[in-house]
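Q: Can I see a sequence and its folded structure?
A: Here is a first one.
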Amino acid sequence: MKIRLFPLILVFSICTATTFAQHDKKEVNNEETKHETGHGNEDHEEFFHHFIGLSIGHSHISSGISNGETKWLALPSFGISYVYAFNTRWAIGLHNEVIVEDFVVQSSRLEPSTVRSGSDGDIAVIERGRPIAVAVVGIYKIHKHIGLLAGGGMEFSEHEDFGLVKIGAEFPYHFAPGWEMFGTLSADFKIDAYNSFSFGFGVARLF
């Protein structure tokens, strides 16, 4: 009797093992597909490769000059950005920011382009006329609502152009299919010139 039951037990064991193996393989394939296509989020958000955003904000400069005195400047700005996402973690983007006012900052260079008289004597300054900052950045998402970015580029103005290094973070939130709103926080280090940081809010189209 035991000899007759052995083949049945063996066949049942093989079938059971095969079933579990196929189930595990299916789960692994589903997880890989979710990771590659971006459908792995709990809310089943669709993954998009392209991002075009428009934002408004303020740029802050601690070394501004107003009426011959050093003053903290808060200047209105707007930004236009394009991002290409390789996957759910990595992306590359082109960030463009325009400060919509003329301003003057204190210079730390040995040979400043302009010197102005102030209450504390002559001040070496750098003049900026509605500068446009253009930077290529790499983006890494540590969370679906948090992306860290770093890169470099140039700031262009009618007076003088400067190289810049940009670091920052983005905070996206999907509110409709193909649309997201986002917050931005970044710092720009203008080489041999001045530094600034900015924050803003925007809306983006995803496709």
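Q: Show me another, different protein.
A: A second, unrelated one:
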Amino acid sequence: GLQIQNIPRGKEVKSTLRADAGFLLGESDLEQAESRDTAHISGDTALISAVSGTRDFHCVNASAFFGVSYEQIYDDTTSKTKDKKLRDLAKRVNHGANYNMGPGVMLDTMGPKYVGEAKRLLRLAPKLPLRDVCKYLLGVYEKTYPRVKKDWNGSIIKSITVGGMLVSPLGWTRKFFGKPNENKQHLNAAVAHGPQNLSVGIINRCFFRIWKDQIYGDLRGKFRIKAQIHDSILFQYRDTSPDVPGIVQARMRQEISVTDTFGITRSMVIPPDLAAGKMRWSELK
């Protein structure tokens, strides 16, 4: 059935969702949550550095993947993207490769038209089959972040083969009945489980903490949670309490200890973004 994550992203639908009288809308989002989770769980230091740095993550990837200087893709002084097509392509490649997507699935997911545009954008051989274009795209990710595909995926296979389960950094345990060493679909499910489970676990902690403050704490009477949407919390707050969005953003910040594939434990903080002060959901940027 329909749920809020399935609502189309276009302004036409979101413009119909508005704050109650006397309230304004806000939304706080955990930035690059699943990529940060993947980086810290896998222990790929290059990916940790890229996603945790001050530069735009997808433009850093686009530069590394496609051999174009970062400055040609993004302007740090104005915080504006210069090459939106290349950034969008890097974003799609990153998301698919994080979860061990194969060339065929990438082609189906992106669509032949988009992959064809990517081939022209990267000036690949005109006669190169679209499936091979996807293979090339996945290959540049693997070359940039080799530990994700090699070491992390290998550790997942070992954990499930030996113990039949995976344990998240938050202590959640999932029993697997498949054979990821023999079946790619089983492996992909196991690969996706770690970062997705951790991402949801973190947002659930944020949600519960803020909900308690709404009922029993300093947000009582000033704030109403409206929805949890993937890695974000959508809320409304009284227009007489302009400090509330900043309070919510601060309480979205969670510090988690993550032990990677190599047994190294790091502290991970996913910075929360914030958009607030609008009447309609479509107006939040």
